[in-house]
Write a structure and sequence with these properties.
Blueprint lengths: L1 E9 L3 H9 L4 H4 L3 E6 L10 E8 L2 E13 L3 E6 L6 E10 L2 E10 L5 H29 L4
Antiparallel strand pairs: 1-7, 2-3, 3-4, 4-5, 5-6, 6-7
Length: 147
């Protein structure tokens, strides 16, 4: 089982941080490993929305689809994928903290087959990557580059 949670303080309003982070079109800008994203459902993002991502992880290209399984705009987003050898759930939460926003990014998954062994090594790698990703989104939002 992999269970990694990281957080960062971003000196921008919660609504702005949440809107930017929850929009999958922005993911390639702030996620180091995500190469592309494509919405598979039309209309505004909501429960049941699906997004296809292409990422590079451990030197391999991965394609996977996330589905929004919980979404409270400005507060929480939970996305889940059941496909592939490593089903994963990603959770974002946003909270107002002293004029800024505490963004938390959590990843949980239960690898199967060969990926079970890889799972032992994945938690530290995921933690390092998500810390970099949160520093990226902080830099983007605090510099005003996303506005």
């Amino acid at each position: 089982m992999v269970n990694v949670e990281t957080e960062i303080l971003i000196r921008r309003p919660r609504e702005e941080v949440a809107e930017y982070a929850a929009d999958p079109d922005n993911a390639p800008e702030w996620y180091q490993n995500i190469r592309s994203s494509q919405r598979l459902t039309t209309g505004p993002l909501d429960l049941g929305s699906k997004v296809a991502f292409t990422a590079k992880f451990m030197g391999r290209d991965l394609s996977y689809t996330y589905e929004f399984v919980e979404y409270v705009p400005g507060e929480k987003l939970v996305m889940r994928t059941a496909q592939g050898p490593f089903p994963m759930q990603t959770t974002y939460t946003w909270a107002e903290i002293g004029g800024g926003t505490r963004m938390t990014l959590g990843n949980t998954g239960k690898p199967s087959g060969f990926s079970q062994l890889a799972g032992l090594f994945m938690a530290p790698m995921i933690r390092r990557a998500t810390r970099k990703d949160l520093r990226n989104i902080k830099r983007i939002l605090e510099s005003g580059a996303a506005l």
